[in-house]
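User: Zgc:172131, Maylandia zebra:
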Amino acid sequence: NIVLLGKGGTGKSASANTILAAENSLQPMLPSLTIGNSQQDSTPFKSYPSSTPVTTKCETRMMKVGSGKQIRLVDTPDFCHENKSMQEAQLNECKLYCQEEQCVVLLVIQLGRFTEGERGILENLEKLLGWRIREKTILLFTHGENIKCNLNEFIVPQSHLKEILEACGNRYHVFKNTSKDS
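Assistant: Predicted structure for Zgc:172131:
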């Protein structure tokens, strides 16, 4: 499983669609692999600007990679959002996909928009999920097209962002979700 986590509006769904487009091998989900509210078609994840969360439940798509291995891509809602009743139900579903030995976490952070609420996001997600996701986490920076310097020059002055990156073993990737070269 590849599980995209992060605050609302950072580009989780758009990033999931970028990954699916890059693989260009989206497969309908097999019924035996269905958990919870899984989509069983090849439609992209909903992604558009909105003042309210677009993704309100965990959604999945299956894709084939390399030698035909099936990978589940999981788009998640913002678990730090104010709606606690929605959060608990969706968090329980996310835990099914986000188990320590069965997933890679993409922690999605929008470049140029690192907020106060994101400072403790890694620790908050670890507390909610019940394990140290940092060992399986890659930071996925979105809106890379907006940064006019190299990423290191951008991150160094932002000590909290640098701490998250270091906690995740300095693993990161930058997406330009409007580009086919991400």
